[in-house]
Design the sequence.
């Protein structure tokens, strides 16, 4: 799926920001060095995909439970990097 140019730019900017944030975190940097020392490379991949209207819907003043393509482990990892999933 091709992304519109403005969305491609936003995703690219987010990727750059995430890489910067990860590289500035001592623990993340140490883990990356340990993985690379074992002979492995690291790659951060972001995917932007359309969500259904139901996933964006709000029910009254509070947000409805939204199903995401992320596992609980994914959500915990993102939360540890202060990434909020709306």
Sequence:
């Amino acid at each position: 799926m091709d992304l519109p140019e403005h969305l491609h730019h936003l995703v690219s900017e987010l990727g750059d920001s995430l890489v910067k944030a990860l590289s500035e975190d001592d623990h993340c940097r140490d883990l990356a060095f340990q993985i690379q020392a074992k002979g492995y490379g690291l790659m951060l991949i972001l995917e932007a995909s359309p969500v259904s209207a139901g996933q964006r819907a709000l029910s009254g003043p509070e947000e409805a439970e939204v199903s995401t393509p992320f596992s609980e482990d994914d959500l915990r990892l993102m939360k540890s990097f202060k990434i909020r999933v709306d």
Summary: Residues 51-86 form one domain. The chain has a mean pLDDT of 77.
